[in-house]
């Protein structure tokens, strides 16, 4: 029955994209089918082929080890601060306690430093280029949009666009939307590691699910965006993938320094957003509860209640088991309207619990992406700085990209749920 729900979910997701398409006659169905087939193939390889599944488990454990290395740096800075330990006692931070701000900051800084080193030695560029060539061959998309979508699975939203900076000025609107959608559907490597470690703290093995989500998001975003805004212009990079982005760092020490500094900025931005959004949510819940009490003194109206109702059809159609549908819908709402960090925090600390393994798989993939309203503003500002002449196009495409990025994550989650 849940597999039938998943099939209904695929129809719903693709149907919504088709409904808002600006040129239904120009939709490239070969691209759509090949993109969905690529997503299905990735999911089958990870979830049904043992040695590949084991490899992803190994990668997941490696991501977990990064947190222990990051703690070594954080421990030097925060040593002497007493925190609650896993057994409930209080001891020095060095002993293994978890403080969200300390651990998250350290992990993001470490991963950004590693990425900067890989970037300096042109390793990251080669990885992105290789995967982009494969996706370009299968889906027949342009080189620019293939590169930016694949890059989004490794680096941040704006950093992915830096890799195609020479092409931004001449990209078609369809390519621009595809690139923006991919950045919103995927999640940066540093943040992915943080989410995996948040899950590990709660005894949840999220790492393989999140890696899979990031890989599936790239073709998924292209599928949805090319239905919503089919290509009708001639692309400058159609049929070719050429990445010429060279390191701006002087040496490896310079790369680590810049990477760490960039990671710190990202971490501080994450902490500021969490404080701001969670505080605003608390304020809104306070107001909503009082509004609810005007009608019924026993009715506690909250944002979670509203999200649970509005996103219920999506959660159900993805194949989430019945006992988890309402909470899954709540997390979908939190991710889209607040941000994915809040959704992951509530998932991992079990304030919005998901009880079944299938529900956990589906919701982990569905909320693993940057698609939220605040990210749209970051994209318009960040990409607009790289290509000021495209700022007007970026602003017009912003909400479309949010729609496409959200549906792309939902599509990946639905496919994974069907195969489980």
TrEMBL record:
The keyword Ribonucleoprotein does not apply. This is Concentrative nucleoside transporter, CNT family. Signal peptide: none annotated. It holds the Pfam family Nucleos_tra2_N. Residues 102-200 form the Nucleoside transporter/FeoB GTPase Gate domain. Its main location: membrane. The lineage of its organism: Bacteria, Pseudomonadati, Bacteroidota, Chitinophagia, Chitinophagales. It is found in: Cell membrane. Residues 210-417 form the Concentrative nucleoside transporter C-terminal domain. GO terms for cellular component: plasma membrane. Residues 8-80 form the Concentrative nucleoside transporter N-terminal domain. Keywords: Cell membrane, Membrane, Transmembrane, Transmembrane helix. It is a multi-pass membrane protein. It comes from Parafilimonas terrae. Belongs to the concentrative nucleoside transporter (CNT) (TC 2.A.41) family. The chain crosses the membrane at residues 6-21, 33-56, 98-121, 176-198, 266-289, 360-387, 399-419. It comes from the Bacteria.
């Amino acid at each position: 029955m849940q597999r039938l729900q998943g099939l209904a979910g695929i129809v719903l997701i693709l149907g919504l994209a088709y409904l808002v398409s600006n040129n239904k006659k120009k939709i490239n169905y070969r691209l759509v089918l090949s993109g969905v087939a690529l997503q299905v193939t990735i999911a089958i390889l990870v979830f049904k082929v043992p040695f590949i599944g084991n490899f992803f488990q190994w990668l997941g454990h490696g991501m977990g080890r990064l947190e222990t290395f990051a703690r070594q740096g954080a421990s030097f800075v925060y040593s002497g601060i007493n925190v609650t330990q896993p057994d409930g006692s209080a001891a020095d931070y060095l002993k293994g306690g978890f403080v969200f701000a300390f651990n998250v900051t350290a992990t993001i800084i470490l991963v950004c430093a590693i990425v900067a080193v890989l970037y300096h030695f042109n390793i990251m560029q080669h990885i992105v280029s290789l995967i982009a060539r494969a996706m370009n061959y299968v889906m027949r998309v342009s080189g620019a949009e293939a590169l930016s979508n694949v890059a989004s699975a490794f680096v941040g939203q704006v950093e992915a666009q830096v890799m195609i900076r020479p092409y931004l000025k001449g990209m078609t609107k369809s390519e621009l939307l595809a690139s923006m959608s991919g950045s919103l559907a995927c999640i940066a490597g540093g943040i992915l590691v943080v989410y995996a470690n948040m899950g590990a703290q709660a005894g949840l093995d999220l790492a393989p699910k999140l890696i899979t989500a990031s890989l599936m998001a790239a073709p998924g975003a292209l599928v949805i965006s090319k239905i919503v805004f089919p290509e009708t212009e001639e692309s400058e990079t159609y049929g070719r993938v050429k990445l010429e982005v060279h390191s701006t760092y002087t040496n490896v020490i310079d790369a680590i320094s810049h990477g760490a500094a960039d990671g710190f900025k990202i971490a501080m931005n994450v902490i500021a957003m969490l404080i701001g959004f969670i505080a605003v949510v608390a304020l809104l819940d306070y107001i909503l509860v009082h509004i609810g009490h005007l009608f019924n003194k026993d009715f506690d109206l909250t944002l979670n209640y509203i999200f649970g109702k509005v996103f219920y059809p999506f959660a159900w159609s993805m194949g989430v088991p019945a006992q988890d549908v309402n909470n899954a819908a709540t997390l979908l709402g939190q991710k889209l309207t607040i941000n994915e960090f809040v959704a992951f925090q509530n998932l991992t600390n079990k304030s919005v619990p998901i009880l079944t393994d299938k529900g956990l798989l589906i919701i982990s993939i569905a909320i693993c992406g940057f698609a939220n309203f605040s990210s749209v503003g970051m994209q318009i500002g960040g990409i607009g700085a790289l290509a000021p002449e495209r700022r007007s196009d970026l602003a017009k495409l912003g909400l479309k990209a949010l729609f496409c990025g959200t549906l792309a994550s939902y599509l990946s989650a639905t496919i994974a749920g069907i195969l489980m």
